[in-house]
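=== RUN LOG ===
request id: a7f3
mode: sequence -> structure
chains: 1
length: 145
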Amino acid sequence: MRRTIAAATARPEADSPVQPERLRTEFAFELPRGYVDESGTVHRSGVMRLATARDELIPLRDDRVRENSAYLSVVLIARVLIRLGTIEDVHPGVVEDLFASDLAFLQDFYRRINAEGHTRAAVTCPACRENFAVDLAGGGRLGES
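=== RESULT ===
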């Protein structure tokens, strides 16, 4: 007998199946320095979405990536950035003009949100020894909770 996902997750005592948990696909962040556009405006906040298999495959056909494999991260990051400040058309040229520390931040952020879906980490407060979880993809700065 085949069971559907809804039937498999239903609570026996409930009349209706449990609503499936929605997958979080977009993650807000704040760059350490920020992208400075042509008019001098600094854009620090942004949104990155989860990468698809296509996002990781298409850049491999890009001539810039074929000539210089280091350019892969520029093309890949540009594909998954939904917004950077007020810029909604984030293309490789924008990513090229980021400060190195901001590109490194985005590369790390990409790895964290796409690595097995884990964005939470268990931590222990050094002062009170209390255990709690933090969301690594929350976009906060180091030391903020």
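=== NOTES ===
The two ends are 47 Å apart (CA to CA).
Residues 1-12, 139-145 have pLDDT under 50 and may be disordered.
=== END ===
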